[in-house]
Amino acid sequence: MKKDLQLTFGPIHSRRFGISLGIDLSPTKKQCNFDCLYCELDPAKTVEIQDEIIEVDKYIKAVQVAIDKEDKIDVITITANGEPTLYPHLEELINKLNEIKGDTKLMILSNSGLIYKNSIFKALQRLDVVKLSLDCATKECFKKLDRIDNSIDYQKIIDGIIAFSKVYSGDLIMEVLFVDTLNNKDNEIDAIYEILKQINPDRVDIGTIDRP
Asked: Mean pLDDT in the chain?
């Protein structure tokens, strides 16, 4: 593995979150349990677990260097080339980041695919901001648009997000990306809306894209 592997990126200016320092939990390749049609990364087979894993302490050192170097960071954003909740040491990483971040907010960008797992459900509660994706409300849509791994039960995702929203005390943001002819039909939009009403997030970010 390369010694100069980039574990963090930025800081960059985010219109919604301010100055953001990113953490990449899959810096060597795409590792994801979804294979979304609109994904900008190169296509890759969906996975249930990561097979290339970086030690927590390496991330902490990289983040500490960035914190010491930069005058101001508004948010530390946990992300990945793929899905960050697949990282097996996520809870430990979050705990250690909370110890060094000071007043900086800690956020994750997740596809929601593992929100129903107890370890992920608990770990994400330690974050200041959680941004979850929900592009679909039906099994057919999940399979066609998000192309979820066969190990994932779409209903558990929906139920997990709703349950998480009831106990989470931070800022919960939902993201919906509408893709022409796939999830922008009235019945799918109505179903997503009904789920969002149950979640009652602090904010909903909506995007659109032509069919890939």
From this structure: 89
DSSP for residue 154: H
Query: What does the CA dihedral 79, 80, 83, 89 come to, rounded to 10 degrees?
Result: -80
pTM of the shown model: 0.89
CA separation for the pair 161, 157 (Å, rounded): 6
Record the tokens describing residue 1, joined without a space. Answer: 């593995």
Specify the 3-state DSSP secondary structure of 179.
strand
CA distance 79 to 102: 20
How many other C-beta atoms are found inside a 10 Å radius of the C-beta of residue 201? 19
Express each pLDDT in 46-92 by its tens digit. Answer: 778 888 889 999 999 999 999 999 888 999 999 998 899 999 999 99
Query: What are the boundaries of each domain within the chain?
Result: 8-209
The CA distance from 59 to 53, in Å, is 11
Q: Enter the CATH code of domain 8-209.
A: 3.20.20.70
